[in-house]
Predict the structure of Phosphoglycerol transferase MdoB-like AlkP superfamily enzyme.
Amino acid sequence: SEQDVEKLKGNDYVPANEHNSYGIAKDRHVFVIQVESLQGFVINRKVNGQEITPYLNALLKDSTYFDNVYQQIGAGNTSDAEWLMHTSIYPEGMDPTVNVINGKPVPSLPRTLQRNGYGTATYHADDITYWNREKLYPALGFDYVYTNKEIPAEQEIGFGPADEVLFDFAAKQLPIQFKKHEKIYSNIITLTSHTPFEMPEDLQYLVLPDSYDNTYVGNYLQSVRYTDEQIGVFIDTLKEVGLYDNSLILVYGDHSGVHGAPVTKDDEAILLDLLDHPYNLQDRFIVPVIFSGGGLFSGETISHLGGQIDLMPTLLNLLGIEHDAQMIGHDLFHYENNLLGMRYHLPGSSFINDDTLYVAPSAKLPAILYNLETMKEKSRTNKTQQSIDNALKIMQQSDQILKSYSNRK
Ligand code: GP9
């Protein structure tokens, strides 16, 4: 039951008056922007004297920024992040979740918003068959689905039209949506900052040292800088048309772009230069989470430990809306502590809690325990063993729910 999950996580509830967030965005329009490969380490960071994400950094002044939230995707990468956002149930892990649910309707954020008077639309500029989104989107129940069939095939970079084409299209849909719905939910999945991050010369806005030329990380920074600007342009559009002050906006990263060990020694040196420490698992797995919207937030940074599983409950808390099914995640405003099961990008039964990152044993390597603050190895205690057991139970509970969805008639 829900209570069991709470008990397993051993969470401490932060009283509501400390972060007065319940229902503060009631009846507002909702814009969720899931950003391809956006990692936490680029936020508020400079390279060669220039901000990597100047537009998001400026947005933070009007936002609450959660800077300690981990990616939790499985083999379905971007589509698993969409799953986590829209169900607050763990992804399957070794298979893309969409392949397990097989298109059957599931309790979801779009359905809950529809019951509360919202029209719901999702936008992604790739072919809908990538990650079987032709099954994922009906399962999640969006009213409107816009992919590369509708979004103009202009300024193609990598997999499809550049993010500015996507955002421009989404902005142009707004008046059409408002003809049919009083309140709208727009879910926008960006694409341009996808590996290998090779941007046309004229869209490389950062002036980087020569040593960054043609490196994986150098290219990554350029593509993130480009997408950051397109998010800024879209938010400016919301301001211009008078929607910003009546909207709740969530921007977050789907998963890492710089995976595992950097590709070359040059990349390693660049990361060391940028971060002042060797690139570690926290740098790799933390995704930025930014809640914004006119007049709602005052630039606070909250470091409660969280995962993508917490995005939906946090959003619904701000809207003051109840979901009609169990969510595994938490409202990030109100839970200081957390126990996050990890799988796929770390071996199954790995977890993160407030002081530990536990990497479960794999076929090749024994288990490793890290002190989460120092990222130095530490030894196993009874308490750790309890957390390992609890993390496994939480994931099993979530899997039961997933299974019940896939067995639905
Ligand atoms: C594919 C795009 C990228 O449509 O969303 O997916 P990824 O390769 O990052 O999982």
Notes: The pocket of (2R)-2,3-dihydroxypropyl phosphate is lined by residues 36, 77-78, 126, 130-131, 159, 191, 194 (CB under 6 Å). The mean pLDDT is 93. The longest strand covers residues 29-35.
